[in-house]
Amino acid sequence: MSETEKKTTATDVYAIHGADPEVLAYAMAKYSRSALTMKESLAEISAQRAEQFLNTFYFQYGHRSIADLAHIPFAVERLSLLAAIELVDEQRWDGQERSTRYQNFRTSGWHTPDLGARTPEFTAAIEGLFDAYDRIGAGMLVALKGAIARPEEMKAEAYERTLKARAFDAARYLLPLATNTSLGQIVNARTLETQVSRLLTSPFAEVRELGEKLRLAATEPAWNVHQSAAKVLCEEIGSVDAACGERATEALLRPVKTAPTLVKYAVRNEYLAESRRELAAAAAELMGGAAIAPAPVVDLIDDVESLEVELATSLLYPNCHYPYRQLREQVGALTAARRDELIALGAKHRGRHDELLRAFSAGRGFRFDILMDIGGFRDMHRHRRTTQLLQGYTDAHGYEEPVCPGQPTLAEAGIEAEYKAAMEAAFASYRTLRDSGVQEAAQSAQYCLPLATRCRGMFKMDFAEALYISELRSGVAGHFSYRRVAWEMYRAVAARHPALAHLFRIEDVNVPVDLLKR
Fold first, then answer.
1. Exposed, middle or buried, 306 (CB in 10 Å: 0-12/13-18/19+)?
2. CB 487 within 8 A of CB 508
3. pTM over the 0.70 mark
4. DSSP structure class, residue 58
5. DSSP letters along 365-421, please?
6. Is 69 left (phi over 0), alpha (psi -120 to 50) or beta?
7. What 3-state DSSP class applies to 454?
8. What is the pLDDT of residues 196-218, one digit of tens each?
9. Quick one: pLDDT at residue 180?
10. Contact predicate 484/297, CB 8 Å
C-alpha cells in the first residue's frame, strides 16, 4: 500500500471551529446523504443552502434529530429565580447558574410583576425578606465565628470566606422567588425549540417574555466575542489594501444568526396548555377538596400498581398539591373505564409534532415523592437522568428551617424568632395577593414565597441514578437541605432492598461535619 493510500484510509479526527450552528448541523446531516468529508461539505455550504435543507428535512419530513446537531450558547441575565427554574426544566439541558452559597444576592435586585395598585404591597413583602436575608446571614456568621475558632494554619481570608459560605447557606432560605439571578446555557436547537414553546405556554408573564427573548436571540445576530479585535484588524488591513480590507470585513464581521430556521416555528404549546387545564380540573374533581395527607420528606413508592394506574396518577400529580400515594389511592379506586378516560386526557390535544407529556415516562423502577424546600429542590432539579414531575408553589406544605449537625441552630444564634417572623410575613403577603380576586396578582403571588417554602416533586429513576444521587448529594461539602433528602433516599432503598444497601458509599448526614471544609 502506498503512502497516499495509507493517508486516505487512515481514521481522521479533527475539531471544528467557526461554522454557524445551522450550517454545521446541515454539514453533519449530509453524512447520511453524501460521501463528502466534513471539510468538503463546509466548504460548499452556504447559510442559504442550509436553510433550504432544514426547511425540507426538518419541517416537512420531521427529522428532528438534525436539530440535535446545532448547539447554541446563551447568556440569560437578570431573570427571577422562579423564571430560572422554569427555564432549566429540560431533560436535555446543560448550563450553570449563580450560586446562592458564594454570592450575596442582596445586590441582585428582583423582578416585579405587573400588579398595578398592588405593587407597593408586593414590594414591601420582597424588601422585608431581603432585610431578613441580611440579618439572618449576619447573625449566623457571628454565631459561626463564636463556635468555630480559626486554626493557626488557616489564613484569615480563607476562614472568613468559608464561614460566609456557611452563613449564606442559612440565609438563602429567605430569598424570595422574585430574586434576580443569571445563568448560561448551551443547548441544541431541538431542546431550544421545545424550551421556547414551553416557556411561551407559562401562566407567568415574565416566563412568556423570556421565551420570546430566547427565540429572538436565536434568530438575530449573535454577540461576537472577537468583534472588537476583528474590527481593528480589518481597519489595519484596509489601510494597506482597501479591497482586501473590505473582504476581510465581510468575512470577519458578518452577522451570525445561530438558529433562525430551527426555532422560527416555536410557538405557544396548545397541547400542554389545554392538557394542564383539563387535568387540573380532573384532579380537583377526583379529590373533592380533601385535605392534603401528611407525608414523609422522601416516600419511595412501591411498584404494585398497574401501568395504567401509574400513568393516570402521574398525569394528575403535577396539576395538584397532593402526595402521590394519596392521589394514587383515589385513582386505584376508579373503574378501569374512568382511568382510561384520565389517560386519554393526557393525549387528547396532542398535535402532529408534539412529544407526549412528561408524565407518560412511566415504568421507572424507583419513584421518590419528595417534599423539600425550594432552595434544595433547585439542586436536585439538576439531575437530568430522572423524570421529574413538579407541582406548583404553595404555602400548603409550610417551610423548612436551616438545620445542620455541627452548625449553630437559629435558636443558638439568637435569630430564630426573627426568621419565623419573616417567613410568616412572607406567607401572609402571598395569601393576600393570592386571594385578592385579581388574576395577575393571584398568579404572581408565588414570587413572594421564599426558598424555605416546601415544594413537592416526583423523581423517577433507575437504581444506578438513585445510588448516584444518594452518594453525590449526601457528601459533606453539600448543602444540608439536599444532604438530608439524599440520606432519606438511601434509607428508603436500603429498607426496600437490604441486599443492595452495601453498594452505596454514603455519608451519614447526622454526623456533625467540619464546617471549615468544603
1. exposed
2. yes
3. yes
4. I
5. SEEEEEEEEHHHHHHHTT-TTSEEEEPPP-STT-B-----TTS--TTTTT-HHHHHH
6. alpha
7. strand
8. 999 999 999 999 999 999 998 88
9. 96
10. yes
Q: Give the architecture-level CATH label for domain 270-398+453-503.
A: 2-Layer Sandwich (3.30)
What is the rounded CA–CA span in Å between residue 224 and residue 218? 13
d(CA 481, CA 372): 8
* Side-chain-side CA neighbours of residue 282 (13 Å): 27
DSSP 325-337: HHHHHHHHTS-HH
Contact predicate 131/216, CB 8 Å: no
Question: How confident is the model at residue 363, as a pLDDT?
Answer: 80
Separation of alpha carbons 269 and 346, rounded Å? 14
How far apart are alpha carbons 27 and 475 in whole angstroms?
Answer: 44
**How far is Cα 444 from Cα 122, in angstroms, rounded to an integer?**
9
The segment(s) of the chain belonging to CATH 3.30.1360 are 74-211+410-448, 270-398+453-503
> Which of 455, 375, 450 has the alpha carbon at shortest distance from 420?
450
What integer pLDDT is reported at residue 352 of this predicted model?
Answer: 81
Nearest alpha carbon to residue 234 among 148, 242, 140:
242
CA–CA separation, 344 vs 336, rounded Å? 12
User: How many other C-beta atoms can be found within 10 angstroms of the C-beta atom of residue 38?
Assistant: 16
Q: What is the DSSP string of 274-285?
A: HHHHHHHHHHHH
Residues 343 and 315 sit within 8 Å (Cβ to Cβ): yes
Give the chain's residues under pLDDT 50: 61, 253
Q: What CATH architecture does domain 74-211+410-448 belong to?
A: 2-Layer Sandwich (3.30)
- The helix (run of H) or strand (run of E) holding residue 95 is strand 95-97
CA–CA distance, 291 with 14 (Å, rounded to integer): 61
User: What is the distance, to the nearest Å, from the Cα of residue 15 to the centroid of all Cα atoms in its chain?
Assistant: 30
First-residue to last-residue Cα distance in the chain: 59
Q: What angle do CA 86, 89, 95 make, to 5 degrees?
A: 100
**Cβ atoms 196, 468 nearer than 8 A:** no
Plot region of 486 (φ>0 → left; ψ -120 to 50 → alpha; else → beta): alpha
